[in-house]
Design brief:
Arc Repressor Mutant, subunit A, 13 helices, 0% strand
Length: 262
């Protein structure tokens, strides 16, 4: 079928097309050569558009596969954590986060890759905030007095509003990871705290089984008081409960340390 014949089948459609003024719609009565020129013009523009899309996709892939800037990522992560102070971790989305932080979604993808990777970085940032516990309880230098002073200092830190908000996020992360066997960051941090408590109590003179039990009891009690503080927000009540728990712990530990020194 000749071109002019094919176009002649849809005259109403072609008359409604809007071409640039420099390229007026050709009359269907004109020669096939002129019609071929317009068809060639359209095809060239389609090819140019396709090339532009391909180049844009290549640039995007190259940008996404580059190493993220190590100087900007920590600052951005801190902004993300600040954003989550009064929001659930489970509701986090790149689109909502990008809008709140006034950055593009591409920026978040560039620095964190995927949402799962971002959540993992958030959990790591939150969970490791208790590393102060590990520096206070150094088994090489710990004494009974420094041990109990360190416990009190750790609790006092948890009373700050920001740390309480971080504690809420950590609890949420722990619950989410409890049903995700392939994610164990909070469990690893939790186990490291138990290990450090056990090592510290062994350094004070307790044997391994005693140290394991007392360390478990101490940390689980501490976590329970923190849950009550996060849920109820009653600082005075939480402080009284902690003081009583610390007293019971001291009454248990000091005789065991004294017995080991004989």
């Amino acid at each position: 079928m000749r071109p002019e014949t094919a176009l002649g089948m849809f005259p109403a459609v072609w008359e409604q097309r809007r071409f640039p003024r420099s390229f007026p719609l050709p009359s269907l009565r004109k020669s096939a050569t002129e019609l071929s020129f317009y068809l060639e013009f359209v095809m060239k523009n389609i090819c140019l558009f396709s090339k532009t899309v391909v180049i844009a996709n290549i640039c995007y892939v190259l940008r996404m596969t580059r190493q993220s800037d190590p100087a900007k990522k920590p600052a951005l992560l801190e902004q993300v954590v600040d954003y989550l102070m009064d929001k659930p971790l489970s509701a986090l989305t790149f689109r909502g986060l990008a809008s709140a932080l006034d950055v593009s979604s591409f920026t978040l993808v560039y620095h964190f890759g995927t949402r799962d990777a971002l959540v993992s970085d958030i959990i790591g940032s939150i969970a490791t905030r208790q590393r102060g516990f590990e520096t206070v309880f150094d088994p090489r230098t710990v004494t009974v007095e420094s041990y109990f002073i360190g416990l009190r200092q750790s609790f006092d830190l948890s009373l700050f509003p920001r740390n309480r908000a971080l504690q809420r996020l950590e609890f949420e992360a722990q619950m989410l990871e409890a049903v995700a066997p392939d994610r164990a960051l909070t469990r690893v941090v939790h186990e490291s705290l138990h290990a450090r408590a056990r090592e510290t109590l062994v350094a004070l003179g307790l044997d391994e089984p005693q140290a394991a039990i007392e360390g478990q009891l101490l940390l689980d009690t501490f976590y329970g008081i923190q849950v009550g503080l996060v849920v109820g927000g009653d600082v005075e009540r939480a402080t009284i409960a902690f003081e009583r728990a610390l007293q019971y712990h001291r009454e248990r530990i000091e005789p065991l340390v004294a017995a080991s020194a004989r």
